[in-house]
Amino acid sequence: MRRLLLISAIMMSSWISAQTLDKGKLKGQITDELTGDPIAFCNFYIYQDSVYTGKGGFADETGTFVFDNLDPGKYIIGFSDVSHPETKFGVVLNGGKLTILNPVLGMNNLDIVDITYHANLFKPDAPTETIIDAKVIKSLSVAPGDIVGLALSNNSNIQRNEQTGSVYVRGSRDGGMQYVVDGIKMTEPARIPSNAIAEMRVITSGIPAEFGDVTGGIIYITTKKYTGRRQ
User: Fold this and answer.
1) Residue 140 belongs to what domain range?
2) Residue 102 sits in the same domain as residue 133
């Protein structure tokens, strides 16, 4: 029984670690436009498609805020306190990435500042990867459900063996790819409708520790989360 519990705990830990690759993380420091000082204990609110998600929190005494466990996608973050009306900023989050947003609040600033691409992304052991979001996928002329075709169209390091049909990273063994869908590892590519994919990450080197047994590369897919409203 003890052995079974240990194995279950290890499997659960691996699953949780893999799931974190799906999520985006947001961090920054909130400052006052006039004084340049940090705004302590400022409120922040997270919106998606202009709808409040029910998520948010408070900055600390240095004006620093952190929020993780967010699905990849576009968000609007609103900031306010008793001295500053709510000011909104747009961000784009990618799975497994830290996005830095340092909002500056004015006394009468009610504008939305659009950030067309994520700010400073930081990961000390960042792998070599290509991120393909839903907008790019929609624009590609690839057969529906052809996951490999999507990866090949955006990463020259991915190769297909024309004789066997298997896929590999340049310089690795034939068939050395691993496929992961929402944290679930697979040895063969799943056929997922293109319009159901929120984001695809094609990792060709610097494989994360969660996938230490991979000899080639990883195609990591995060599917869209449907909540009853238009995505």
Assistant:
1) 128-223
2) no
CA–CA distance, 1 with 56 (Å, rounded to integer): 42
- Reported as a single tens digit per residue, the pLDDT across 82-96 is 989 999 999 988 888
Please, which residues have CB within 8 angstroms of residue 169's CB and are 6 or more apart in sequence? Answer: 157, 158, 159, 176, 177, 204, 205, 216, 217
- Give the number of domains in the chain: 2
* Chain segment 137-153, per-residue pLDDT in tens: 888 888 878 888 888 88
Q: With contact defined as beta carbons under 8 Å apart, do 167 and 161 qualify?
A: yes
pLDDT tens digits for 57-77? 999 999 999 998 888 888 999
Cα torsion 142, 146, 148, 150: sign? positive
